[in-house]
Design a protein that fits this description.
Layout: H1 11-21, H2 25-32, H3 36-44, H4 53-65, E1 68-72, E2 76-80
Antiparallel strand pairs: 1-2
Helix pairs in contact: 2-4
Length: 85
């Protein structure tokens, strides 16, 4: 069985993503279903976002629903797509 490649995202990108959306850690917790202590712990780490794959996917899904994309080519970043009205 082929394994999916995990998207590389850093703790700094998660913080930047929250800032773009104006979300607190508490808001991200509500939107993603990931506990507040887990989010706080992941954001304290430096470098690639650690933790369980399911937690990682829930965080990224919450951001994706809001139109946010993580950039991981030559440089790391975060971008927000224009929302449809």
């Amino acid at each position: 069985m082929a394994q999916r490649k995990r998207t590389t995202v850093t703790a700094r990108q998660i913080k930047a993503a929250r800032a773009l959306l104006g979300w607190s850690q508490s808001e991200l917790s509500k939107k993603s279903g990931v506990s507040l202590p887990t989010i706080a712990k992941r954001e304290m780490d430096d470098g690639e976002l650690g933790g369980r794959e399911a937690t990682h996917e829930r965080l990224l899904a919450a951001f994706n629903r809001e139109g946010l994309t993580f950039l991981n080519a030559a440089e790391l970043g975060v971008t927000l797509r224009a929302r449809r009205r």
